[in-house]
Amino acid sequence: MAALTDAELKLLQALVYQECGMHFDERRIHFLQDRLQRRLKECQVDSFYSYYRLLISQEGKDELARLLENLTVNETSFFRNKAQLELFHKYVLEDLLRRKHESRDYSLRIWSAGCSTGQEPYTLAMLVADALAYYYLRNPLPYEMPLPKPLIPGPWRIEITASDISYSVLRVAQQGAYNENQMSTVDYSYRLRYFDKVGDHYAVKKALKEQVHFDFHNLKTEYLPQRNDVIFCRNVMMYFDEAEQKRLIDKFYRCLNPEGYVFVGHAESLLGLTDKFQMVHRNSGTAYQRVEIKS
Ligand SMILES: C[S@@+](CC[C@H](N)C(=O)[O-])C[C@H]1O[C@@H](n2cnc3c(N)ncnc32)[C@H](O)[C@@H]1O
Fold first, then answer.
1. Any atom of ligand 1 within 6 Å of the Cβ of 39
2. Going from the N-terminus, what domains does the chain have, and what CATH number goes with each?
3. How far, in Å, CA of 238 to CA of 234, rounded?
4. Burial level of 184, CB count in 10 A (0-12/13-18/19+)?
5. Would the CB of 123 count as within 6 Å of ligand 1?
6. Torsion of CA 140, 145, 148, 149, to 10 degrees
7. Which one of 126, 197, 202, 273 counts the least CB within 10 Å of its CB?
């Protein structure tokens, strides 16, 4: 097995950073070294420098994508960080539905950036469907709702874009089938309403699945979903260095509608990185709202 020299490691580290923003500090450098060794073996290349040459070549595009996939951490779960979701459900959605209703704009766009295997965007879709149903219990529509009641009552249009840099997690997400273990954080009322039991798996019901659109997006690029009301980007930024985090926050600002919200992971924060967002904190849940410059 070829030895990885410091110079080769630096080259590969810089390439990974340039391609996807992931930064491997001292705590995570062994993980990078291990994954590089595995890819080198798989590709049957004789040195890390040759592997680097392959990655930057036209023919190496697929291998570069495979390496990046191998470097991502895909841990996720349904209803992750309950306090934050409570804030999203009870405060943020309530605020957005009221504002939108008043301006007769019946569209809601949410982006789950770094969605992994789909538990996050499907959780958001369930919460939005419930919040809309509850909103219309208190503010009835001016017409009789058709029966059976649609999941999303017209004239509302919900668009949840869920994106990731890894094609393999996106494939799993698109299938929307989860085992008992993955369902452990989904309570029975949600299981009954939004999933079909198929053998030993739970399949996301078609009506809920239709609210979520999966797509490949690399957060390092500028080509990202626009005009969102809410962005969830949880447990992604923690793998970037400060400079990349700042660039990403600026992109989020541009990808949001005025007064839109960003949710980041509980080990992440926007504090000290930007003055374009203000913190919203309720009952242990935190979000950040876009600050509008008043003219
Ligand atoms: C730890 S998972 C978080 C999943 C989910 N947001 C949650 O909090 O449960 C991080 C995800 O971010 C994705 N990711 C990492 N770097 C990315 C990048 N540059 N662009 C898009 N997605 C990225 C990974 O592929 C992975 O699926």
1. no
2. 6-71 (1.10.155), 82-290 (3.40.50.150)
3. 9
4. exposed
5. no
6. -40
7. 197
CB proximity list for 180: less than 8 A, separation 6 or greater:
200, 202
pLDDT recorded at residue 293: 80
Pairs from 190-194 (Cβ < 8 Å, separation ≥ 24): 190/126, 193/126, 194/122, 194/126, 194/129
Atom of ligand 1 nearest to the CA of 77: 9
- CB-ligand 1 contact for 260 (6 Å cutoff): no
Q: How far is the CA of 75 from the centre of ligand 1 (A)?
A: 9
In whole angstroms, give the CA distance from residue 34 to residue 73.
14
Helices (H) and strands (E) in the chain, counts: 11, 10
- pLDDT for position 141: 76
Position 147 scores a pLDDT of: 82
Expressed in angstroms and rounded, the spacing between residue 295 Cα and the centre of ligand 1 is 37
Whether the CB of 285 sits within 6 Å of ligand 1? no
User: How far apart are alpha carbons 270 and 231 in whole angstroms?
Assistant: 13
CA atoms of 244 and 14, how far apart (whole Å): 13
Structure confidence by residue, pLDDT tens digits, 124-149: 999 999 999 998 888 877 777 778 88
Map residue 101 onto helix, strand or coil: helix
- How would you label 240-266 residue by residue, b for 16+ Cβ within 10 Å and e otherwise? beeebbeebbebbbebbbeebbbbbbe
- The finding on whether 219 has its CB within 6 A of some atom of ligand 1 is yes
